[in-house]
Amino acid sequence: MIVAAVVLSGAARGAAPALRDDVALRGDVALNDTVALSDDATPREAVTLRNGETSRKGTTPRDGTTPRDGVTSRGAPAPCGGLALASGSSLSESPAPIEAPARSVPAPTGKGPAGSWTQHYTLGPGDVLDFSLFGRPDLTRVDLFVEPDGNISYLQATGIHAEGLTVDELRAKLESALSVYYKLPRVMIAPKELHSKKYFILGKVEAAGAYAMDHPVTLVEAVAQAKGVELGLVEDKTVELCDYAHSFILRNGRHLPVDFQKLFVNGDTSQNVVLEPNDYIYMASAISNNIFILGDVRNPGSQGYNANLSVTGAIALRGGFTDTAYRDRVLVLRGSIEHPQHFVVNINRTLHGQQCDFHLEPRDVIFVNSRPWQFAEELLDTAISAFTTAATTTWTSYSVPVLISHPIFPALNSQ
Length: 415
Prior knowledge:
Strand content: 25-35%
CATH superfamily of the largest domain: Outer membrane lipoprotein wza domain like
CATH architecture of the largest domain: Roll
Largest sheet: 6 strands, mixed
Strand order of the largest sheet: 5-21-20-22-18-19
Number of domains: 4
Radius of gyration: 29 Å
Number of helices: 7
CATH class of the largest domain: Alpha Beta
Order of helices and strands: EHEEEEEEEEHEEEHEEEEHEEEHEEHEH
């Protein structure tokens, strides 16, 4: 027999010897307690203690769940009450929170990383340049735009593609083109207005929109340029209407690990990252209690919250599962994006009356995957990416006015 040292809390301490072979290792168990495993267990199947949790490597518990299904701990929501450890129990308690591993956050500097746009600025549509030819002041041209197709023209050098070039590279192309008409031409270029590099900030700020980047811009400066976060009155007190815990930055379509709570509430300047062109900043609303149901459901998106809403009820409101949905392990995220708690819910066990339904809280995120998975960490990036996309879409649908209110083309008469 293999014995793992663990501590059983409360009433379960005295009942430990009786559990023995019937125990289902599905809970958070503290160190220095004793739980007996079955005689047929091998050293490979020994209990592994990690971060206060137990899992059994190489085996599947007798109830058919994977090691993290239905984990329980003090403080977890338990709408049905009761703790079913033995395999013969009828109901098991709702899942307990599991803290996500800490994420590394890039430390900002006064300059962008090597090779970034701050080191080698490249031209793009909307940039305004002044041109002159050395020794020929009469050939000076000012306020020439890089056109939407990325081309620019100066004197006889027409249709020169400037997008993606540095000023020095554009100068070399112009001198080469003008050398047919002038002897050893020396072109001088002076950038006048830089509009091609932009970042975008939406959500609960006073002046949401696109802002040009003519110098390195930090996250705090971006919010300041948008005239700060929106304010409102709550019980005759002026409060910020921004939910920093659910605010985020997207870069190249991926979530950037920045903790808005630490930056704007705690003053942690290590989170004040330098922005890159096309970064998207979303300041979440603190007055919205919507939950998000994402992944393999028929109508993914946000859903209004009510006090009696559960995981199965929320999924049903969004049209139910798709045919490819994996129902044995549905992931629920709660709390901030950077440090979320995650819960694993077995919908099949819930529907068969073997496990209580999981009660939701405002701003929870439900993610249904299309294939089996074991650890929640495997899905965190996918779930958070789906949330950021859904949050952006939801804000746009509520905040951007309808541009086309009637059909553009006349309706065709049916024959």
